[in-house]
User: What shape does this take?
Amino acid sequence: MALRNHSTSTEFILLGLSADPKVQALLFVLFLGIYLLTVMGNLAMLLVISADFHLHTPMYFFLSNLCFLDLCFSSVTVPKMLENLLSKRKIISIEGCLTQAFFVFDVGGTEIFLLSAMAYDRYAAICHPLLYSRMMSNQLCVRLVWASWSLGFLDAVINIPLAMNLNFCEAHTIPHYSCELPSLFPLSCSDVSTNLTVLLCSTLLHGFGTFFLIFFSYARIVSTILSISSSLGRSKAFSTCSSHLTAVSFFYGSAFLRHLIPTSGSPLELIFSIQYGVITPLVNPLIYSLKNKEVKAALRRTLGKCLQWHR
Assistant: This one.
């Protein structure tokens, strides 16, 4: 109720990716295909991990949670983008916009924490292989996942309720395809200094805190790999963390660059947003399946079982 009483506008206009109807039709087909492939790819990974007991290990427990997060992350923004690509009135209510921003914060923040937990798992596997089962117990894995979800939710709870007290002016056009918190501040008639300070502090603590955890883990991993005498041993050790390192580079790189660029709706800003919000959930299952012999073997076993069952 407070939101309605303090707002001079009740809805926003999402400009999206293009104003040309022909280009919008092409983008709709493209992003619908990407979204369907994202859903199928992540659901397939979840199915294979749950069905194959060979993958019931800490690394794949984390990976199954990552696949679920990617499903959620893509589903927060892409369906609304597809709707607006077909609609002449590309509007979203203030409540809907803040809800979308909340879940972008929640799911995106959870994914960042989960990637740091996965880095610790790779550190334990490579640097302390004899102690791995003790260091990565089932209880610890569950606690790390719960902690990731809790901290992501806390980050959203800290930032989004503050935005609910802002007054939004008549100029209510968002030069973006989704509602992200930095895009809302220029539309406010209120003083946003507190919001910006809280956002900056939470981003520094959240983003750079997890980044340093990942950096420390990989610094130890690289040191351990370089100390291995045989080239075959170094290659095997590196292959166990290459998929995770690729996933981290995709997500962290594009997310940090997106939030370092001033909010203006520039093509570069939109490209980085699409990369971490749309493309990364699509490619993560490919990264972990194409570069991982265990997953490829599990896929063959699962497909074999399915074929036998149909016969």
Q: What stands out?
A: The CA atoms of residues 222 and 238 lie 8 Å apart. The first strand starts at residue 11 and ends at 14. Confidence is low (pLDDT under 50) at residues 1-7. The radius of gyration is 21 Å.
